[in-house]
Each structure stands twice: as C-alpha cells, then as structure tokens.
Amino acid sequence: MKRVKLTVAYDGTNYCGWQVQPNGITVQEVLNQCLSEFTGENIETIGASRTDAGVHALGNVAVFDTEMRMPGDKFSFALNQRLPEDIRIQKSEEVDADFHPRYVKSQKTYEYRILNCRFPIPTERFYSHFTYIPLDVDKMKEAASYLIGEHDFKSFCGTGAQVKTTVRTVKEIQIEKSGDRITIRITGEGFLYNMVRIIAGTLMDIGGGLYPPEKMKEILEAKDRKKAGPTAPARGLTLMKIQYF
Amino acid sequence: MKRVKLTVAYDGTNYCGWQVQPNGITVQEVLNQCLSEFTGENIETIGASRTDAGVHALGNVAVFDTEMRMPGDKFSFALNQRLPEDIRIQKSEEVDADFHPRYVKSQKTYEYRILNCRFPIPTERFYSHFTYIPLDVDKMKEAASYLIGEHDFKSFCGTGAQVKTTVRTVKEIQIEKSGDRITIRITGEGFLYNMVRIIAGTLMDIGGGLYPPEKMKEILEAKDRKKAGPTAPARGLTLMKIQYF
C-alpha cells in the first residue's frame, strides 16, 4: 500500500466544485471514478481545497492510497490518458502514508482575475470577472495592505461556514495591472469559506470609488460579513498552488 | 443611409469560422441575423478577415449599411445586448460610405499562442496549442528573421487558395516566452490562406530541433508548401487587430 499525491489542474466551469455531492458532477467524483477504474480498487481521494462551483485550479492537491506497484510519478501519465480534457494531473508522486493534504501545514496562493474595460472579451469570459467600472489599482493596493498579517477575518467569511476560529494569516497580496487585466494574487496559510472572493469583491468596491481605501480597516475590525463587499463571481478565481512545509 | 464599422471580438471555438457557409453556424451569420433583427432591415456585413473554424479574434472588422438614425457609436451597446456571449462588439463607428474593410490598405496583427510544458493546462485548452516537446525560442527567433520583409510566401500558402500572387510583406515577428507560454506575434499587410498557422507550425518544427534555423530560408526559397511544417491548430490563433491607413 502506498499513498500518492496528485497536483490537479482543472477548468471549473462545468463542475459543481471539487467535493463529491449529490446534486451534480464534481472534479473529485470524476477523479475518484477514473482512479477506481484504472486501479481496479475502490479509490476515494482526499482533497486539499474544496473549491466552489466554477472556481478553477492550476495546483489543487489530492492524495489516495493504492496497492498498485506503479511508481508514483507514472500515475500522472496514466490518469491523463483517461481524464476529460478539463482535468489534468500536473504531477504525481509517492508521499508518506500519513501525509494528509489538509492537516499538514501549508500555504495556498489564489489569483482573482478581473477584466476592466468597456466590453467583455469573449475568450476570457470563463476565466475572469468582467467589470466596466474603472478600477483604481493604487487604491486597491492601499486597501489590501490592511489585510496583511494575522487578523480575525470574520467580515470576509461566507455565511454558513462552520469553523472554530475566523483568525487567519494573509502573507501577501499583490495586485497587478497589465493592459485591461487586473490580477489580485493572495497567499496565506489557510482561508475561510469564500474569503478570497469576498476580499476581491471588497477591493473592487474600493477600486471603483464606493469607499476610500481606509474603509478596509473598518470592515476588518467590524467582524461583520455585512460590512464587506459582495462575493466576487467564481469564474475569476483560480487556486494557483499549495506549498507544504 | 450610413456605413458603420464594427470591431468584433469572438471566441471561435464553437463556430465554423467567420464567413457564412451552408455547413454550420458562423460568426458572420450570427452577426447578420442580430443586425437584421435589430434594424428591421436585411443586413449583410462585409468582413475584413475570413478567419477559419476555431480561430479567435479580438479585433476583426466588419461593415454594414443601414437607414437607422442611431449614432454609429451606439450600435456596440445595442448589439452586445443581443449577441451570444462568445461574440462582443468592441467598438462601432460611422465611416465613409465607400470604406471597404478588405480593399482599403491595412495591417493585421495575429498572435499564435503555444503552451509548452509536460501536461496541458485545462483553462487554456481552447486558446493555445499545447506541445510537450521543449521549444528553443532563440532558434525560433532566428528562423523568423528570414521571413521579415517582402517575399514570395508560396511555401506558406494553404492548398486550395486562389490568389493572383503569393508575394506578401511581413513587417514584424515577435516571439516571447513567459513561463510555459510562447507567443508568436506577426504583423503584415496581408496574409495568404493559413499563412500564419503554417509559419507557426514551421517555427515549432525548428524550435523543437527538427531543422536548424537556417532551414527557414531554404523553405521560403523553395516556394513549395510541402517543404514547410504542418499547419498549426486553429485554437492557438487569434486575430488581434487590423489597422487601416
């Protein structure tokens, strides 16, 4: 028996998110089926991040246990032959039998992409959020600076989430503008439900001039979801990578 | 009566190219229908570039004549309300009644995008060509330099094309690598059928080490389609812009 770690990229457009659920097809379900057929075993993967419906990933992580003698690094090739083209294993490797992708300390990086011009660009419609309201990136950067470090991010936690604590650490937020494209890149040790999308929605409110940048501090301190901006649409979000320590 | 020029962006994935044809739905057909419904007239647009099935555009150009009194710049808003989300008018403006998008002197810029890594990235599958063969960008740049200027591009002309002359002028070819992404950007005053895709296919052959860069000169001088590389897949190609003089 060995444990194999997969680095999984997917286009989330046609999936009801990562985690197996009764109402629709999920990335994890397709991966479990594919692995079960390939190995002849009943495989249930354990995922690192339960991304929402419509959210994309370049580097989500999943592990599974198998009796197969195939070397860990060969699973990527075998699975990519069988998976639909909106899911691709980027890497496979054998890990310690007790490695758990959610309980081992890690750092996640997300990107939220915004297309900011007069009209949408069709080829980017599934992978960025479009807004014609001109966004001031300098204001967004100033607002983002209040979020760096360890804080109670309760104002940025989606309702319905069950967590012991809403304290999290945001290590870095980079905001870059290139032509009509704005990318918000957030790295942290763990995120609350919808946290990146609520931060993105609030930064867009501030970039659009609805509030001054200092308002972000007030929103953070309020510890009240209703004070923050809207949850930005899923299509703009991509889980870029997960680093384990 | 006035003539309106449209700058048209589209995701070519689900279309049989630009030009109206009996075998499948095209961008021009959708645009003609949309314009005819909106104006109540029988509109037939004239397009600048008849892009192939699966090719994308950020800035193709089309014109049409209408009796409508609406100012030229308002058509973009009205049409974008009615078009499917894989077609978006980026700009509309009134032009001289004799402006013809193919007969007025112009310069076109195309981008051919390549994803060059071990495994495909699902979110890029419709908008770039994937190859795992490592490409040497310096060799591609050297090879591309032989194509700059006025030449007989017969070796890079798709079979079945009916043209008076295969002499064309390539003004610029830029090849950039950013991470795993390689972009070939070509600007010229006119292109032969499949010319950009055959150039891209030949540059990939050279970048992958099949021929040395100097071979490009030999291919050009042979004036023989069979000497050049394969026609690179449509999904990697985007018509970026058309500039009129």
TrEMBL record, chains A, B:
Pseudouridine synthase I TruA alpha/beta domain mapped to chain residues: 8-103, 143-244
Any GO BP annotation: tRNA pseudouridine synthesis
Coiled coil, from the record: none
Active site: residue positions: D52 (nucleophile)
Positions contributing to substrate binding: Y110
Cross-referenced SUPFAM superfamilies: Pseudouridine synthase
Keywords from the named record: Isomerase, tRNA processing
GO MF entry, a single one: RNA binding
Catalytic activity: uridine(38/39/40) in tRNA = pseudouridine(38/39/40) in tRNA
Function: Formation of pseudouridine at positions 38, 39 and 40 in the anticodon stem and loop of transfer RNAs.
Family matches, as NCBIfam families: hisT_truA
HAMAP family: TruA (MF_00171)
Subunit structure: Homodimer.
Protein name per Swiss-Prot or TrEMBL: tRNA pseudouridine synthase A
Source species: Blautia hansenii DSM 20583
Gene name tied to this protein: truA
